[in-house]
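Board notes (copied after class):
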Amino acid sequence: MKLVPGKTYSFFLLREFLKVFIISIVFIAGLSYIVKILQGLDDWKEYGVLQTIILQLLEAPNIISRQALFASCLFSSVYTISTLTKNREILALRSCGVSVYRIISPIIIFGFFIGISQLFFENYVVVPSTRAKDRVLARIQGDEPEEYYRDRRNLMVFGEGGLIYKIDFYSSKQREMSQVLILSKNSDGKVEYRITAEKGRWNGKSWDFFNGVVQYFSPEGSMREQQQFSIFKTSIADDPRYFGRDTRKIEDMTFGEGVSHVRMMKKMGFNYRKELTKLHRKIADSVTLFLVIIIGLALGSMPFRNALVISFSMTIGIVLVFLFIIELGYTFGSSGKIPPAVGGWLGNIVFGFICVYLLKRQRV
């Protein structure tokens, strides 16, 4: 049994879909640019035309991935199939014995590749372009590029190997601790040693401590040795990022950075559910594109007199419903009422059931 109806029809269907898909992306991205330009007319005067154009070009991947793709995938699939249905081209294939699933399979397969491509595009294009825009904007304004990790005061951090840090002040730029106390506990929860130091500084591989005291304890809890030091080199290698405050949004991190960020927040005892929910939503976005294409194909199979108006109306309605579901998932996932993974994937779970229902009721 063939998966697709044939090369001629498959290429024809994909060509029709791609034409609408590209036009939709250009239209939505262009509309977004117009709104941004109207909102930032003062920037053109302050930065100059050329510099503003550079900033807008660096913003383009973000607009395409996070604003244009979702609506474009939905509108393109609805409009393409509804147009073919209206022109009776789908009916001709059905009369030749071609099943409904073979008719729409070329776009479904193409939708799968769109979803996979969005993952790589987000990770290797959108995130770097966002950082490049921040650097260019800082240079235009005459400032230093923004540091993503900020200084922190009065923090307690749980490190690797049973280490507990209490730090009065941490300088992210210098990677330096001030007035630091470190306790090392064994698997039984008993203190093995304690370091009290005026400063701690990252040497690139591990932490060195200055002007302090190290105390070693016996298994019974009594102090068995104490050493004063001016410089104490250790093998403690907890990442300096554990101690800084990352000011980036989870959306502006790569997937690997997002996972590391959530792990650090969890280890430090912070409320990580909000960030973990966002990370799951970021990954789920690629699957969303695949699902809305299937929904669009199913809805587009219904006969419409005006394919353009109905396709546009359906797109607006579904986008609004989906955004509402995403917000519900984010709210409940962040508060702990549902697991963060469920909160991040809630929109896809709901749309997945809708896909199954619509495919079972296909009418083409």
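Comment from the instructor: The mean pLDDT is 83. The CA atoms of residues 333 and 340 lie 4 Å apart.
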